[in-house]
Amino acid sequence: MRNKLYKAFQDESGAVTVDWIVLTAAVVALAIVAFASLQSASGGVGDSLGNYLSTIEVNAD
């Protein structure tokens, strides 16, 4: 019984899968944070550009 329990604790066959899951979760979290940051920072730029373009007069000559 003790030998089987020792072998079960020494088995590392799923360790790589756990590493990839943690790494993937970290990359997804970083992408979400970057997207949210860029979205909030670029909102004013789009509004300002829209206002500027709506005030320009274009001559058809």
General description of the model:
This protein is mainly alpha-helical. The protein starts with a helix and ends in a 6-residue tail after the last helix. Helix content is about 80%, strand content about 0%. The longest helix is centred in the middle third of the chain and has 41 residues, at about 15-55.
Q: Care to give the gist of this entry?
A:
The protein has helices spanning 2-10, 15-55. With 61 residues, the protein is mainly α. The model has no long low-confidence stretch (mean pLDDT 85).
Key terms:
61 residues
What is the strand and helix layout of this fold?
Blueprint: H1 2-10, H2 15-55
**Main sheet overview:** none
Separate helix tally: 2
On the 0 to 100 scale, the average pLDDT is 85
| Topology pattern, helix = H, strand = E | HH
Low-confidence stretches: none
Specify Rg, calculated over alpha carbons: 27 Å
Compute the separation of the termini in Å: 94 Å
Structure class: mainly alpha
Strand content: under 5%
Question: Helicity, in percent?
Answer: over 70%
The number of distinct β-strands equals 0
Shape assignment: rod-shaped
